[in-house]
Amino acid sequence: MILTYAMIGTWRMAHEGLTAAMADLKQGGRSTDAIETAIQAVEDYPFFKSVGYGGLPNQQGLVEMDAAFMDGDTFAIGAVAGISDVKNPISVARQLSNDHFNSFLVGAGASQYAMFNGFERRNMLTERAHKLWAKRVKEINEKNLSPYDGHDTVGMISLDQQASMAAGTSTSGLFMKKPGRTGDSALSGSGFYVDSEIGGAAATGLGEDLMKGCLSYEIVRLMGTGLTPQQACDQAVYPFVEKLKKRYGKVGEFSLVALNAQGQWGVATNVEFTFSAGNEQQAPAIFMANPGPDQTTIIEPISAEWLAAYEKRIKAPVD
């Protein structure tokens, strides 16, 4: 059965924005608008510490963000990396997707483009995020701990009633990263990919390892051969994780979500991973995924207890 509209997004943080965007899709809204609406909601919420406002800063205390946008009808892509002091990087990436040249901007060039084109400026470093940064600096100096802790990207794919699809990503990147570092999130084929005739995929996890494979593109390619999104995710992700572990010696966190042109979704992960998804027949809901036996994925609805603990954790006072 063909479902006329659907969305999926990485992590629990995607849910509210995805829910609002799906309400627009139900009324005939476009997939491109849905991606921007949903990701803006994540970027604007200060307690999601890996995306946008309240995102965790780099080694020098500056919030540098990456974002990308892709139109599945035209393959138009816009992206920014290392952008700073801009309220909604996803919106900058979307506007850049309209340009044939200069559609991927980095660092000062990305920030200047946003300023010259009237995008809202904002100091993205919150007091809470600065406290977390200062605490980590102290721990590094006193306990010789690894500086790197946290790197979750919000990635989303949407399908509208006109059979058009879009994808987008946004992240503040690896906590305590070196200035100028970027991961996979803004890289086509690695952090995201979408083709309206087939489907789309998006990734979250350790960018340095995710970019060693082009898993988002591979998932879309496999769906194009007739595999379901779940089959494509399992077949693309788990063998590559094992290959990387064998040949590189170690592997970071990998989680990918996929949505096909029929509104079906799939997920694969090598860690405990939450996501939000919904379609015409199923209201948006939050799920928990874990790696299962024989390169499969176990997916279950999230529990009320987990949700309550999550809300308490992300808003806990910073000592």
TrEMBL record:
CDD domains: Glycosylasparaginase. One of its GO terms (cellular component) is cytoplasm. The active site is at residue 153. It comes from Latilactobacillus fuchuensis. Substrate binds at residues 181-184, 204-207. The keyword Hydrolase applies. The keyword Cell inner membrane does not apply. Pfam families: Asparaginase_2. This is Asparaginase family protein. The record marks 152-153 as: Cleavage. One of its GO terms (molecular function) is beta-aspartyl-peptidase activity. It is an enzyme of class 3 (hydrolase). Keywords: Hydrolase. Its EC number is 3.4.19.5.
